[in-house]
Amino acid sequence: MPVKLGANRYGKAETRLVRVVRDGPVHHIKDISVTTSLSGDMEAAHLTGDNAAVLPTDTQKNTAYAFARRHGVGQIEAFALLLARHFVESQPSIHHARVEIDEYGWRRAGPHSFVREGGEVRTCLVHHDRDGRSTVVSGLKDLVVLNSTGSEFHGYIVDDYTTLQPTTDRILATAVSAQWRHTGDDSAYEPSYEQVRNALLDAFADTHSLSLQQTLYAMGERALKSAPEICEIRLAMPNKHHFPVDLSPFGLDNDNEVFYAADRPYGLIEGGVLREDAPDAGFAWE
Ligand SMILES: O=c1[nH]c(=O)c2[nH]c(=O)[nH]c2[nH]1
Description:
alpha+beta, 36% strand, binds uric acid, Uricase, oxidoreductase, purine metabolism, EC 1.7.3.3
C-alpha cells in the first residue's frame, strides 16, 4: 500500500526568555515564551533520515536568545516577525515559519524589582512564507472577568433531559481567550492591544447578557469597531458556572448572595466576528 508524507512542521516549543534592559539603576524586563515551527523541504529528513535541510530546533532556540540580545524584545509581534523572516530568508530549505509568543506581565515594584501580574497573558501568532507573505494575529488568554448581575438565561430548548431552571439574574463569569487578526503586518501593536483589551472589557461590563453567546458577539463587535487595523477576532469563553447554594436546610434564604463556584464541567462558548470585507485569512490561524 503506497503512502506518502503529509503535512509536517518542526521547531522548538516554549523557549522561555527574559530580557533585561538596564537603564542605569532602573531596569525593564520582558518575559516571554517563544515557539518556532518551520516547514519546507523536509521529505528527505522524514523518508531517509538525511538532515541536510534541517535547521536544528536547538539553533532555533539559540536564535531567539541571540536576537533578544542583538535587537531587544519590543512588541512581541515585531519580535516574532523578525524571527520568522530570518528563518525563511536565511535558509533556502525553509519555506514557511510560524512563530508564537506568549508574554507574561510584570508590574514595577522598585527600580529593579517586579511583581508578576496575576492577570492575562498576551499572545501573538505570526507566519511568514517564502513568497514574502506575513500574517499577524494578536491576542490574550486567561483574562478572568465576572458580572455579579446583568445576566439572564432563559428561552432555551426544554426536552426530556432538561433540568436547568431559567434565570433572570445570575453571575456571569469567564476566562476570556481572544485572538484577533491584523489586516496588514505593520500595526502599532502596543496601542492596538490596549484598544482591543479595553473594548473587550467594556463590552463585557456593559452588555446586559441574555447568554454568553450574545456577550461574546458584543465583545467581538466592540473590538472590531475600536480597532480599524484588525479584521477578525475569535473568542473562546468558558462559562464559569456559579450556582446559588440551597440554604433552606439551615432556615436561611439565599437571594443570589451565596454561590458555589463550580470548577467543571463548564460550558465552552466559542465564536468569531469578522468584518464583512475581511480579506482571506490564508494561513493566519494555522
Ligand atoms: O450563556 C449560556 N449559554 C448556554 O448555551 C448555556 N447552556 C447552559 O446550560 N447555560 C448556558 N448559558
